[in-house]
Model the fold of this input.
Amino acid sequence: DDAWRAYLRKTLNARVPTDNGATAGTYKVMVVFVVSKDGSVSDVKCDSDPGFGMCEEAIRVIKKTKNWTPAIQNGRNVKAYRRQPITFVVSD
Done:
């Protein structure tokens, strides 16, 4: 979790909501995607989009990630769907 937060802090453009007119508040984007057997990411899209360009920014950040650890079932790597929340906090 710490490594994920550090990656988000480094890669995510937190100014996107403000630059697109978002008012102060906390906004959650739910990104859904597939992690393949080899750990590659595909079919990235938003399940919930508060607007203000946050969905597009979240998708950009997920697509930029390196390989994920694939799911394991019966001792073998399998393709799996993943839901990843990304929270934007806009302050005054």
About this structure: The mean pLDDT is 93. The helical segments are 2-11, 16-19, 54-64. The chain is about 25% helix and 40% strand. Residues 26 and 89 are 5 Å apart (CA to CA).
